[in-house]
Structure formats: structure tokens, C-alpha cells
Amino acid sequence: MLTYLLLFQNNIFVIGILLLQVSLLGCSTTSNASDLIRQQRIEESPQWNGETFQNPEQVPDVEWGPSLKMFWNYFFNKPERYIAVLVLSVAFLVNPLWVKAQENHSMSGYVRDASSGEELIGATIYVEEIQGGAATNVYGFYSLTLPSGTYNIRFSYIGYQTQVISVELNKDLHYDLELISGEELDEVVIRGEADDANIRSSDMGVVKIDVKDIESIPVLFGEQDILKTIQLMPGISAGGEGRGGYYVRGGNTDQNLILLDEAPVYNASHLLGFFSVFNSDALKEMTMYKAGIPARYGGRLSSVLDVRMNNGNMKKYTLSGGIGLISSRLTVEGPIVKDKGSFIVSGRRTYADLVYSIIDPDFRGSSLYFYDLNAKANYKIGEKDRIFVSSYFGRDKFGVSTFGFDWGNATATVRWSHVFSDRLFSNTSLIYSNYDYKLKVEASSIEFQLKSGIEDINFKQ
């Protein structure tokens, strides 16, 4: 709308100037307005005989300076001059209003956890004066475009203290904010859904789960498993007892795309399907698309499971772990350079083979275990550039003296994030994924080995 008003205003200026030029050209035969007035007053004098004055001293005195009457006669005795002055007057009166209305500025930045520096996904930025705002994307980035002025902006996120800041926006502003974790309160259970939630939401068939929410769900042998968790949701069913994979609305298990930091994971199960390859200590969030899958994913018919890893603690070094009946895990994270870069390394391994070898000496030399290793690092090159490097390595091994097989996944992602402006940023990714399977059989003088696998490299912009 402002564009059309601005064009209209510019047209008023052009029309007024053209009319004024035409009026000035129409009077080009007269040297100036004062000469015309002098000639008129001389001819009206009674001392004038048609050629000269009878007495030269009786020549009427003419005021050569501009007067209000001369200005009025000159500019308003012809219609085109009157219209030109009117148009220009309207244009100058209206001009400041449109100039003020079109002064918009951008405010953008990142919202992070104050204790770890981790970007917060889905944090709310609310502008009280316009009763609207925005939310951070999957990279913790937000952007607002507002007219010039002073605003009270509220930053909020579930489980964190809300912060309100006052901003005088008279130029483009980059503003990063860190939210402080809120105090824990007694449990409050709220059940309900808006009557029109199913038609107002643009994300149909999408389920987002915070890994912290999985901690309250009972698990097998003390191992948290996101694949088992999503099987509790509507439209998703288990692939069967002791089997990996899951079915989504009648589709097959191979019609589900599973991504770990944008890299495809071709076999997402350990121990013949009892556990998944995802170590929850290294994960931040997962999003399940059961319908309306965005075109950027492509390649599967039933669903897409997009899993994101933690970036690591930018504030301090932390060490965490756990011991379970089947496996143990250990996670180390901390800053590379405080507030500029961080890393996280998380590992998990089962020890059934170690226990069996102690109980039964005949089992020594055999293998029965799986392991996972997740690693990720990120570093801010500047205010507008950031590099992410993440990888995963996992393998299952089962073998005795004459028979054995093993399989595993390996993924790696290198992503460069660049902010061009407050409204435009890009992510460039180089993605590697590998899955292989090995089978070996030995019997007397016969030895048989079978190897198969898949490997791909992708470039994504």
C-alpha cells in the first residue's frame, strides 16, 4: 500500500512542476511582472497624451519591489498557474506523512540458553505495541521488521524466565539475547486444545518432541530410546517385537526417512531392533512428519524423522553419564572458546560380552556388543558466519569362532551458516553417509564372506 502512495506522491510533484513550466512559458513574451504594472499605471495617468508626459516630473511613481497584489496577479490571474501552485502545495503538505510511514527497520539475532549458550528453537519474540511478533527457527534465529519508534519486546521460552526489553528502533539492529532457566514449580497439568487448532495450524501431521520430555517415559533396561517413544503416538506403530523400524499409517518400514543433522541413517537399530542408534544424551530435538512432508526432504513416502544434535555448552565444561543393565554412556561438552565455539562428544557401549566372558570362560574370544559415538563442534568465524561439524559412528558385532556378522552406520555433516542481511541467511551443507553389512562363515576348510553396503555424498544449499 505504501508503495502505491509513494508513487502517487511522486506523480503529484511531477504534475505540479510541469504545470508551472507551462504557465511560465505562456508568459515568456513579457520581461517581468513589474514592467507590466509600470506600463499600465503610466497609460492610466491623466498627464499622458498618448506619446509623452506634459510634465516629466508628473510621471507616476511605481514600486519596483514585489508586493502581495503583484504576486497574486502574477500567479493567480491564469488558471494553469493557480492549479500548479495548488498541486505543489498539496504535495509538500502530504510529503512528510509518507516519508515517515515508509521508515521501516529490521531487528534480528539469536536467542540462547544463558547457562550453556545453546540456541533455543521456537522461542517467542512478542512486540506489545503491535500485538504480534515472531519465533526463532531451528537455528535459534529470529527477524522482525517494524516502523521506526520505541517498542517493548518480550522474549519467552518454556522453562525460562521471560525478559522484556525496551528498544528505540531508528536503524537496523542486531540483538542477541540469553534467557535464564526458570525456577522449577510444582506440576501443573493442562489439558485441552483450541477448537480451530486443526485448521489454523499450517503444520499438518507434524510432531515435535524435546529430548528432555523423553526422560519421564518408562524405558527398557534403563535405555532411553526416541524410536520407541514415537511409536506411542497416533498413526505410528511398532515394527514388531524385537524388530527395528516402525510403520506410519500403513506404510512399510523402508518408506521412512531418518535424518541425523541432515545425514540419512539407513539402519537405525542396534541388537536386532531392541535399541535405536540414537544416544539421547547427544540429542536436542526431533521432528516427526507424518503428512504434508516438505519438498526439501523428499525420497520417502510415509514419514520423515528429523533429529538434531546438541551444539555443546559454550559457557563451561560438563561431564555426564550413566550406567545401565545393558550399556553405559559418557558425555563431555564445553567451550572451545567461550561464547564463540563449543563441542560435545558422547559415547555408549554395551558390555554383555565382558560379563559373559567372566561367567563362562568358553565365551572368551567371542564378540557380542554394540557401540555409538556422537561428536559435534561449532565455531563463530564472525558476526555473520558460523561453521558446524557433526559426525556419528556406530556398529554392532556378533561372532563366535565359526560364525559372525556385523553392521554399522557412519555419517558426517559440515555446515556453513551465513547471514546476508536481517531478512536473508543461508545454510550450505556437505553430507556424507555410509552403511555396510558383513557376514562370515567358517567350517573346516571352507570360509565364506559376504559384504554389502551403501555410501553417498550430498551437497545441499
Report the end-to-end length measured between terminal Cα atoms: 34 Å
Number of distinct beta strands: 25
How big is the Rg?
39 Å
Level of helix content? 10-25%
Output the CATH topology of the largest domain. Ferric Hydroxamate Uptake Protein, Chain A, domain 1
Low-confidence stretches: 1-10, 18-34, 47-68, 96-101
The biggest sheet, with number of strands, parallel, antiparallel or mixed sense and barrel status, is:
8 strands, antiparallel
Name the CATH superfamily assignment of the largest domain: TonB-dependent receptor, plug domain
Mean pLDDT: 77
Count of domains: 3
Beta strand %: 35-45%
Which CATH class of the largest domain applies here?
Mainly Beta
The total count of helices amounts to 8
Tell me the CATH architecture of the largest domain.
Beta Complex
In spatial order, strands of the major sheet run 18-19-20-21-22-23-24-25
Highlighted features:
single chain, 461 residues, alpha+beta, five-stranded mixed β-sheet, Immunoglobulin-like, 3 domains, Ferric Hydroxamate Uptake Protein, Chain A, domain 1, 19% helix
Structure characterization notes:
The structure is a single chain. The protein has three domains: 2-45 and 67-101; 105-179, Sandwich (Immunoglobulin-like); 204-460, Ferric Hydroxamate Uptake Protein, Chain A, domain 1. Helix content is 19%, strand content 41%. The protein has eight helices and 25 strands. It has helices at residues 2-26, 33-43, 68-76, 79-101, 197-200, 211-214, 226-230, 352-359, and strands at residues 104-113, 124-127, 132-135, 141-147, 149-156, 163-169, 173-174, 177-179, 206-210, 236-238, 246-248, 256-260, 263-264, 269-270, 275-276, 283-289, 303-309, 318-323, 327-337, 341-350, 367-380, 385-399, 403-419, 425-443, 446-460. The radius of gyration is 39 Å and the shape is elongated. 23% of the residues are buried.
